[in-house]
Amino acid sequence: MPNIPTGALSSSLLAKVAEISGQNVSKCMQCGTCTSVCPMACDMEITTRKAMLMLQHGMVDELLASKTPWLCASCHSCQVRCPRGLELTRIMEAVRLLALRKNIDKINPREIVREDVIDMPQIALVAGFRKLTA
Amino acid sequence: MKIAYYPGCTLKTKAKNLENAAIAALGKLGVEVEELERWNCCGAVYSLADDDLIHQVAPVRVLIRAKDSGANKVMTLCSQCYNTLARANRLVKEDEEKRKTLNLFMDEESGYNGEVEVVHMLQFLRDTIGWDEVKKKVVKPLAGLKVAPFYGCTLLRPTEVSIDEQPFAPKVMNEFLTALGATPVQFGSTTDCCGAYEVLVNPDAAVRQSADILVKAKAAGVDAIALSCPLCEYNLGRRQPSIKLARPEIEEMPVYYFSQLLAMALGVAEQSGPFELNNLATRAQIKERKLATV
C-alpha cells in the first residue's frame, strides 16, 4: 500500500465522493469483511478495505489511479455484509464517476472485438458502457 | 390469469430461449403473458450515484407504461431488469424529493408513485402460482438431473430487493427445481458474482471468476447449472470455450435458463429454444437425456 501522505489531503475530492455516494467513509472500522467476500479481491493490488482506509486519508487520486474501482463489478457482496452499514458499491461508483465525469473513458467501445460484440448479451454492453465510459 | 410482462433488450435476441421457454411454460400453467405494448431498455444497471437522476428515467418510464396498461404487477425474466426496475420502484416510493423531480421530468407520461409491484418470474411462480400447482402440471419430471442453482448478484442484492427472504441462503430455486422433479445441489458459489461486465475491462479476472464457479459446480457433482440472468449465462455458459483456453482443465458444463427446465418438465420443451443459444454441452445433454429435439 502507498505511504500515507503527510502533506495536504485532497479533502475537496473526498467531499465530492461523499456527495455522489451519499456515504460517510469515516464509518469504516477496517474490519476487512468487504475484502474477504470480494470476488475480485485476488486481482486487486489495493483491496476494498485498503481503499476505504485510503479514502479516509483523502488519497482519492491514488485510488483512482489503481485498478480497484474498475475491478469492482458492483456485485454488492461487501455492501450486504458491512457491519457498519456502509454502502461500498456507491463509494466505488463515486470514485469511478470522478474520472468518467471528466470524459475519461476506461474502455474504448471501438476496440471491442467484433465477434464479442456479436456474441455478448446486450446487457453486458449496456452495463459495461454505463460503468466504464463517460 | 394474466400477468404484465417486461422483456428487456436481451430477451428478444441473445436470450430468446429464456423468453420462449417462460411464455410457453406459463401458458401451460394457465397464465397469459401480456407484454407491455411499449417499453424501453431499463438501463441494465441501477444508478448508484446520489446526484444522478437521469438514469432513473428509463426504468421509471417502464413502470409508468406498466401502470398505464392497468397492471398492478409487472413480471421480468432477466435478473438485471428485475434488479434495476425493483430498485427504481423503491426509490420512487421512498424518496419524495426525487419522485417529484422525476415526475416533473416526465412530460408526456402520467405521474408515478410506485403503484406497480415488480416481480421476477421465480417469485411469481412461488407466490402466485404455488409450487404444488407447478408440481401438478409436471408431465416429464427431471428425475435424476442434479442441478446447481446459481442466483448471481441481482436476484439477491441489495437485500431490500432480494427475491428470497434469506438472501445469504436462498431457497426459491431449490423449491423450484424440486417441484420439477430435479435434484437441487447446493454448491459453494450459489450466490457469487459471475464476473459480470468485467469481461469488457478485466477479462482475465472475469474468466478466473467464472472458471472458479464452474470448478466448484463440477466438484459438487452436478449435471447442470440453472440460472436466470443472460449475463451470467454468457459468462458461465456460452463463454466456456474462451474459459477453456485460459484454464484447459475446465470440463464443459451444461447451463440452462430456469425457464427452459420448467418448459421441459411441463411438456413444452420444443418451445424452449432456440437451443443454439445454449452452449454445446447443454445441447448434448438435452439430446442424451431426450429432454427435447435438438
Short description:
The complex is a heterodimer of chains A (134) and B (294). Helix content of chain A is 49%, strand content 0%.
Task: Please characterize this protein's 3D structure.
The complex is a heterodimer of chains A (134) and B (294). Chain A is mainly α and 134 residues long. Chain A contains eight helices and no strands. The longest helix of chain A has 13 residues. Chain A is globular and about 45 Å long. By secondary structure, chain B is of the alpha/beta class. Chain B is 45% helix and 10% strand. Chain B contains 13 helices and eight strands. In chain B, helix 9 crosses helix 11. The model of chain B has no long low-confidence stretch (mean pLDDT 97). Classes of the chains: A mainly alpha (134), B alpha/beta (294). At the A-B interface, helix 1, helix 6 and helix 8 of A face helix 8, helix 9 and helix 10 of B.
Oligomer: heterodimer
Strand content of chain B: 5-15%
Q: So what's the CATH class of the largest domain in chain B?
A: Alpha Beta
Q: What is the percentage of strand-forming residues of chain A? A: under 5%
Q: How widely separated are the two ends of chain A?
A: 28 Å
Please describe the topology of this protein:
The complex is a heterodimer of chains A (134) and B (294).
Chain A: H1 11-21, H2 33-37, H3 48-56, H4 60-65, H5 68-71, H6 88-100, H7 114-119, H8 122-132
Helix pairs in contact in A: 1-6
Chain B: E1 2-5, H1 16-28, E2 32-35, H2 54-68, E3 73-76, H3 79-94, H4 96-105, E4 117-120, H5 121-129, H6 131-137, E5 146-149, H7 172-179, E6 183-184, H8 198-201, H9 203-219, E7 224-227, H10 230-238, H11 240-246, E8 255-257, H12 258-265, H13 280-288
Parallel strand pairs in B: 1-2, 1-3, 3-4, 5-6, 5-7, 7-8
Helix pairs in contact in B: 1-12, 2-3, 3-4, 5-7, 9-11
